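Human: I would love a firmer grasp of how sequence relates to backbone shape in proteins. Take your time, and here it is.
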Amino acid sequence: MDGNRSHSISEVIQFIQSLKEENPRFAKDQIASATATKFNLKLARKVFHCTDFAIRFSSAKGSSFSNTVLSLSTLALYDKGPFIVCIVKPNDVEFLLANSSFLKKISHSSHKLRVDNVKGSFLGHDILREVDGLKNVPENFDKLFAIHGEFTWEENLARIVEATTAIVPTGSRFAPSAAQVTNVLSSGNLAKRISGSNDYANIQRTLDKLVADHRDAIMKAAEVNNINQRGNSIEQIITSSGNVHGVGDLSFALPTKERVLVDVKTKLLNLASSPKGYNIDKFLTLLSAGNSALSFFFVAIDLAKHSLSTRLVSVFDSTILAATRIQFHWAGRNSRGVTQLTGDLSSIFRADFKESINTAEVDVYLKKLLDL
């Protein structure tokens, strides 16, 4: 969310909290009406909305909240912006971010739900109360929406369908042989051997030239508000291709016969962001070949200063590993899930940054992924 959006949501929440404190007997409809009038919100399909966010008012008599909130098809209309549920209780109000990334499943009238047939509604208890250690409370809405922004509606829908109906989406869970496990567990040593080599530095130089050659187009694409669309556009500019749905966007063959796959990541320095990492099963499959490494190529953009910086860094770098989180609610019956970079990555853009790979640390991490 940008600064204006964050401020407007905060303003709405503060207004509702104050309104309830000053008028303890106000019910859901009275609070909704006052809020809509104050902030000029439009009403459609039980949802109050504006350009920057949407809000659904619900009520609960006690501490639990299990009411029907909204149909999944209606949520689809508002999922690109923050979707907030305001629960009006007898003595206070509670707020939850309820975008599709934060839904466990669909509970009501969902027996016909498929990815090509969006049916059913979600209840209050279908909304996650914590994601990646972040409680679903207003103080964390910026960070939570940054997590949501990296996933498309289609990705979330496929996950929700599986969780709801036991219909497993296409794709397969990686089941490695003993030899493949050996290759996976040796990939930290391979990455460390490549790291710091002149061949690896040449990849950074090649990528930097691509960015320099397309700088104006990249800066223009960075102005796009939608996180997914923005990242895809910049990725396509750099790679000169359409969206790639594998582990990496570019592949570089080294003289030593190894290959380095590069996944392009975009970060706007003035916005909260949590770039998606990789599909864990696809990642393990890549490493199991025994001759491949994966690196992220970050393009950090400061729109205010009209500047950008870049960094090629291994997924096994200690700073990257510390920022990598496994999104466990994505781990369905046929998947180990996905990773997301939700930690602090600012240090990798410092001029004195040097990639550092601790093979013992990598070994622990890879064993964890294999055991999922």
